Amino acid sequence: MAYFRITLMRSGIGMPLKVQGVLKALGLRKRMTTVYYPVTPDVAGQIMRIKELVDVKEVDRPLTKQQQREQRRPEKGYHVEKRGSEQTSNYEGL
Amino acid sequence: MFGPFRLTNSLMGGLLWKIPWRLSRHQKYRHRERLRKVDSTIATLSAALARQGQTMKKVERWKVEMPTEQEMLPKDKYTVFDRKVKRYRKGIHKVPKWTRVSQRLNPPGY
């Protein structure tokens, strides 16, 4: 089943009440909130109302809040680009 | 002429907002990006619905009636019709909330 991934990019402050109502109904309270809804004409109609404010992608499965947080988290630990000892031996050679 | 009590526009009238009469090229660039973003949202919607075997009147109507960013004339992209302005055109940046509303069509002939 396909889903819409809807992210609020622009705030709805100062927009008509109908637009703000759609944002509230979709659960988009703050900028950069992401919500997932199944692909149906009802949801498409709601997106049409707020199309200037949101970023929409079609995805296969919705992500939970935890999964979204995990995606944003940088990888644990570190990797060595260059050893300091190699650097100093180069300098000693000069 | 000079001094602390000279007559300036803001002193005489109070609030003075200065909106330049035309857009800068960077504003124009960002405006085109926004138009393209809306186009891509519409494309995503119609593609997703078509994959489900469904259509929507609102989306179809938008696709028929509204020109895409590439099809729009520069005149329609950056200016809008206004009956109160000389020669009936004003910059699109004078429209309230212009970065968050779609304003693509103008009356024919103007």
Automatic annotation (TrEMBL), chain A:
Annotated region (Disordered), positions in chain: 59-94
What's the family?
Belongs to the universal ribosomal protein uL30 family.
Any one GO CC term of this protein is:
large ribosomal subunit
Keyword Ribonucleoprotein appears in the UniProt entry: yes
Localization terms from the record:
Mitochondrion
Q: Which is an annotated GO molecular function term of this record?
A: structural constituent of ribosome
Q: Which taxonomic lineage does the organism of this UniProt entry have?
A: Eukaryota, Fungi, Dikarya, Ascomycota, Pezizomycotina
Concerning Pfam families, the annotation shows: Ribosomal_L30
User: Start and end of every Large ribosomal subunit protein uL30-like ferredoxin-like fold domain?
Assistant: 4-54
Native species: Pleomassaria siparia CBS 279.74
Report the function annotation for this chain: Component of the mitochondrial ribosome (mitoribosome), a dedicated translation machinery responsible for the synthesis of mitochondrial genome-encoded proteins, including at least some of the essential transmembrane subunits of the mitochondrial respiratory chain. The mitoribosomes are attached to the mitochondrial inner membrane and translation products are cotranslationally integrated into the membrane.
Q: Which CDD domains match?
A: Ribosomal_L30
The identity of this protein, by name, is Large ribosomal subunit protein uL30m
Q: What is the superkingdom listed in this entry's lineage?
A: Eukaryota
| GO BP term (any one) | translation
| Compositional bias segments (type: Basic and acidic residues) | 59-85
Q: Name where it mostly resides.
A: mitochondrion
Enumerate the UniProt keywords alphabetically: Mitochondrion, Ribonucleoprotein, Ribosomal protein
From TrEMBL, chain B:
Q: Name one GO cellular component term.
A: mitochondrial large ribosomal subunit
The entry's localization annotation reads: Mitochondrion
The keyword Chaperone belongs to this UniProt entry's keyword annotation:
no
MF term (GO), any? structural constituent of ribosome
Superkingdom is Eukaryota
Task: Tell me the GO BP annotations in alphabetical order.
Answer: mitochondrial translation
Keywords from UniProt, A to Z, are:
Mitochondrion, Ribonucleoprotein, Ribosomal protein
Kindly report the protein's main subcellular placement as a broad class.
mitochondrion
**How is the quaternary structure described?**
Component of the mitochondrial large ribosomal subunit.
State the name under which the record lists this protein.
Large ribosomal subunit protein mL60
The source organism is Pleomassaria siparia CBS 279.74
